[in-house]
Write a structure and sequence with these properties.
26% strand, alpha+beta, four-stranded antiparallel β-sheet, 337 residues
């Protein structure tokens, strides 16, 4: 175990944080996810935690880039306000839900903090990079478990660089097609939000538009194609977007929403397997997608939440999702630009 300490003043004890192992933790060869935990018996208030974050911020950012995800366990974060304060300690720019093109229905708790997804408990949300189906996406995400589910409700995490390495070995032609052609996504947004769907956000909310003219102006700026449907639902198709990206440190990642769209964009308006195509309009082989999904499943780590957990996820390096659950589950999220 590695301990990291920061001492504040004579009236506050030092905050002792150690790296710990958790069941089923992976090695690529670095551990995934990395877990920081308050040392046994440790006590601290938000000011001490904030001082610890600021003192160790460079180290934390470097660890995030290396490991892809960091779990903070046992820290004094118990509600949305304390979660917001914890996020602010990192000094990173907020990426608001209002300004995002996320498909998910969410509810803001603070300017920075919102519910992760309002979809019903029995709806699985499949692996994806946040908003990779749009031209604008966050660099990282925070999650906070305000209340763990009685059964299920884990957040699956998958390293996209490791997945792409395996894909390159087993299906190089598919990888080459993804790189050379790119991908396009088609999604039908409802006039009013649909709480039964994991992609049920209305077009008014998604596009931050009051009327059809405002929606069309936003879509034109984004380079989308669109079609108005009966009932004033709106079908949109993105411009060609990358399916593979090269990060600043040279890592190649399978950065897209192909798994989530192919497997999960299914509701009263959408047919999942018709929601994606290559950038030239050609069909993406369902058998190839099934192979990718199987490989990703084998690489997935299920983050089994404990109430009070906070996770920081590199959106370029790691895909995430949501397992179905029973009982009440409250997981909040925040996006970083």
């Amino acid at each position: 175990m590695t301990e990291v300490h920061v001492r504040t003043d004579g009236n506050n004890p030092a905050l002792a944080v150690e790296t710990i192992t958790v069941p089923e933790q992976q090695h690529h060869p670095e551990v995934f996810p990395l877990v920081y935990a308050m040392a046994a018996g440790g006590q601290a208030d938000s000011s001490v935690v904030s001082a610890w974050v600021q003192t160790n911020l460079d180290r934390i950012k470097q660890a995030l880039s290396q490991h892809g995800a960091i779990l903070f366990r046992g820290f004094p974060v118990a509600n949305d306000q304390q979660f917001d304060a914890f996020i602010q300690s990192f000094g990173m720019k907020n990426f608001t839900y209002t300004d995002s093109l996320s498909n998910a229905v969410r509810r803001n708790r603070t300017e920075r903090v919102f519910t992760a997804n309002e979809a019903p408990a029995d709806v699985a949300i499949y692996l994806h990079h946040e908003m990779a189906q749009t031209p604008v996406f966050p660099s990282a995400l925070f999650f906070f478990c305000e209340k763990a589910a009685a059964v299920g409700g884990a957040t699956p995490l998958c390293r996209s660089d490791v997945l792409l390495e395996q894909m390159q070995l087993q299906m190089p032609d598919f990888v080459q097609a993804c790189e050379s052609k790119g991908v396009k996504y088609t999604n039908t947004m409802p006039l009013e939000e649909d709480l039964k769907s994991g992609q049920g956000r209305s077009w008014r909310s998604t596009l931050n538009a009051a009327d059809k003219a405002g929606a069309e102006a936003k879509l034109k700026t984004l380079g989308y194609q669109w079609q108005w449907l009966p009932g004033d639902d709106l079908r949109v198709t993105t411009p060609v977007l990358p399916a593979v990206r090269v990060l600043d440190n040279g890592r190649r990642v399978f950065f897209n929403q192909l798994i989530a769209a192919f497997w999960g964009w299914q509701d009263a308006r959408n047919v999942a397997q018709k929601s994606i195509s290559f950038g030239d309009g050609s069909v993406i082989d369902p058998e190839a997608m099934a192979t990718v999904i199987e490989m990703a499943d084998d690489l997935t780590y299920d983050l089994k939440w404990q109430t009070g957990d906070v996770a920081l996820v590199d959106n370029f390096l790691v895909m995430h999702g949501r397992r179905p659950f029973e009982g009440e589950r409250k997981v909040l999220a925040s996006l970083l630009a």
